[in-house]
Write a structure and sequence with these properties.
The protein has a single domain (about 10-100), classed as Transcription Regulator spoIIAA, CATH 3.30.750. It is about 30% helix and about 30% strand. The chain has helices at about 40-55, 70-85, 95-105; strands at about 5, 15-25, 25-35, 60-70, 90-95. It is globular, with a radius of gyration of 13 Å. The protein starts with a strand and ends in a 15-residue tail after the last helix.
């Protein structure tokens, strides 16, 4: 079954577009463009909607994110913290090799779904 879009993409702000879709019981936040300090409100809003409006795990798909900085990573970590250690999890899907390396430097490699880890 193809993903079901539940929210229209947000208006691009500084080169970032975010959208939410559902894959089974999982909400997917897809980021396209640059996720940095200038576009942080878009990242935060998309993650907040995924957590508050839907049940189940959250996947942040960064396959089309051209850049993600520490502000974007902090927002993702905060979202993971909100989900807590309970029954809901947050993972990252399809990070670029550079993003994977950055996640490793910050000790966040465990957030990448195992099938999506790439050699860094």
């Amino acid at each position: 079954m193809p993903p079901v879009r539940i929210v229209q993409p947000t208006p691009a702000l500084g080169g970032l577009d975010a959208s939410l879709s559902v894959e089974g019981s999982t909400t997917v936040v897809s980021l396209r463009g640059d996720a940095d300090i200038a576009t942080l409100p878009i990242v935060v809003e998309a993650l907040a909607c995924a957590i508050a409006d839907h049940n189940g795990d959250v996947i942040v798909d960064v396959a089309e994110a051209e850049f993600i900085d520490t502000a974007g990573l902090r927002a993702i970590l905060r979202a993971k913290g909100v989900l807590g250690g309970g029954e809901r999890r947050l993972t990252l899907r399809s990070p670029s090799p550079i993003a994977t390396r950055l996640l490793g430097v910050f000790g966040l490699g465990h957030l990448v779904t195992p099938a999506q880890k790439t050699a860094a």
